[in-house]
Every structure is written in C-alpha cells, then in structure tokens.
C-alpha cells in the first residue's frame, strides 16, 4: 500500500563504483562541489552504524546539554544529510545546508573517497562511527525492509551476500570502515565504535567533547548520556525519525529505533551463515587491523 506515488524503491547507480540511490547519483556533480566552512563538522558513517545517536550527542554538547534546545527540530533538519536528494518537494541536503549558517553539523554516508574535497581542504573536523559488520548488516536489513525508498532487501540469506559483495546502497562496508581508518591520523578523524558507545557512553561522550574543544560540566555530561540512551531517544519525536511519513518509513515493519544493542546478529545468523561470513571477513579485512567487537 503506497500512499504517495513519488515514493518508490529507487534503483542504485554506481558513482565511481559505489552504488548510490539514483537521485544522489544524478546530482553527483553538485554534491562533489559542495564546499563546507572550516567550522563545519562532518559525522560520517556506513548506514546504520550509529549516526543518529552521534548526531544527538553532538547537538547536545553544542547546546550544553539543553534538552529543549535540541528539540527545536527533527534530526535531519538540525543536522542535514549532505548527499540526500529526495523527490520534490522534500528539500535536498544541499538545499538545507545552503539555508543554514556555519558552524553546521553535517551527516554523510559517503565512503572516504567520495567525500567532497572541500572538507579536507578546509580541514573540517570529522567524526566517523563504525559498527561491527554483523550487527551493522542486521540493522541495515530491517532498515531496508521498512524504508520504502531503499532497494528491496530480499531474504536475509541473500542479503548477507549483497552485503559481502558491496552491493547495498553506499557500497561496501569493508571499504567504508577501512577508508576512514587508514586516513584517520592524517586527516585528524575521530574514529569511534558503536560498541564502545554502548559499553561506556560517558567515556565516548567525553572523547567527542574533547575532540570538539568543548568543555561541559560532569553534570551536563551525565545529562547528555541520559538523554541519548536508546530508551530516551526512542521516545523523543525529534530524535526518533517519526518525522519521516509512514509511506516512506513503514513503521508497521520496523521502527527506526529498533533494538539498539550489540550482538543482535546472534538472533539472525545461522551457524553456517556466520561461518561463511567470518571466512569472507578474514579475506576482506586481512590488510587492516581494526579492533571491531561483535559482542561486549
Ligand atoms: P538497530 O537497528 O540495531 O536497533 P543510524 O542512525 O546510523 O541509522 O543507526 C541506527 C541504529 O542505531 C539502529 O540500530 C538504532 O536502533 C541504533 N540507535 C539509535 N539511537 C541509539 C541509541 N541512543 N543507543 C543505541 N543505539 C541507537
């Protein structure tokens, strides 16, 4: 049942080998030409790695933990999604950014090599959040089931293969996490892990605070940890994506704030699927040593 005819599962078109939603691919030159201000912050992730959570933490840090100030608008309005292009009349990420004054907090799912070069020329700060492959895959699977603008995920078994082959929107998880990892020192990228955030959110909020050269009181840090718990964000209409209408995000299939845990992959992968995935993972990740944890 489609309430809006303009919403459809958009096909993917490769941009320099990375499959992107057709609307994004067709607007690629404008996205690549985007030039941020040096004061802008980029939050980069592979889809479903903890983007929204990090956006909320950053907004709260920038507003000294003021919960009301951070309810001024939904996440994608407060912190625009750089490359997103939706069917009109929905404003694109670039449209939103144009109407905002720096410093802006910009979200992207682009892999390192597709980040507009202006970010590096202007030495913008970049926070990258990575999540272990198996949980990231499961979260993406539910997202693709419910988000009617993403390609049909098909059965879970086949989805695992698409993930391993880098055929999902925004391409290969393996290339994504490696791309930013290898550049993190040279480009002063703060590289975070979803699992660390779950394990000790306070420590990670403080790391973000220091990276942003902010200093908020211990009390405010505690408040931010509390406001950005899974439970509180799930109930916060300005942070839980209830702003996206139901023909696009079909909440009868899955909520955006789905589970928010480490290790949910165990409830989805069979022993055989897990073995096959791990064998392939060894090969794809053999050239780097990124300390991912699939359980905490
Ligand atoms: P699950 O599908 O595993 O529940 P993104 O924002 O990058 O799209 O990532 C979404 C994932 O992060 C979802 O994972 C979502 O539930 C989880 N998430 C969002 N806010 C969270 C929070 N405050 N704490 C823990 N997980 C959170």
From TrEMBL:
<dbReference type="GO" id="GO:0005737">
    <property type="term" value="C:cytoplasm"/>
</dbReference>
<keyword id="KW-0128">Catecholamine metabolism</keyword>
<dbReference type="GO" id="GO:0008146">
    <property type="term" value="F:sulfotransferase activity"/>
</dbReference>
<keyword id="KW-0963">Cytoplasm</keyword>
<protein>
    <recommendedName>
        <fullName>Sulfotransferase</fullName>
        <ecNumber>2.8.2.-</ecNumber>
    </recommendedName>
</protein>
<dbReference type="InterPro" id="IPR000863">
    <property type="entry name" value="Sulfotransferase_dom"/>
</dbReference>
<dbReference type="GO" id="GO:0006584">
    <property type="term" value="P:catecholamine metabolic process"/>
</dbReference>
<feature type="domain" description="Sulfotransferase">
    <location>
        <begin position="38"/>
        <end position="288"/>
    </location>
</feature>
<dbReference type="InterPro" id="IPR027417">
    <property type="entry name" value="P-loop_NTPase"/>
</dbReference>
<comment type="similarity">
    <text>Belongs to the sulfotransferase 1 family.</text>
</comment>
<dbReference type="GO" id="GO:0006805">
    <property type="term" value="P:xenobiotic metabolic process"/>
</dbReference>
<keyword id="KW-0808">Transferase</keyword>
<dbReference type="Pfam" id="PF00685">
    <property type="entry name" value="Sulfotransfer_1"/>
</dbReference>
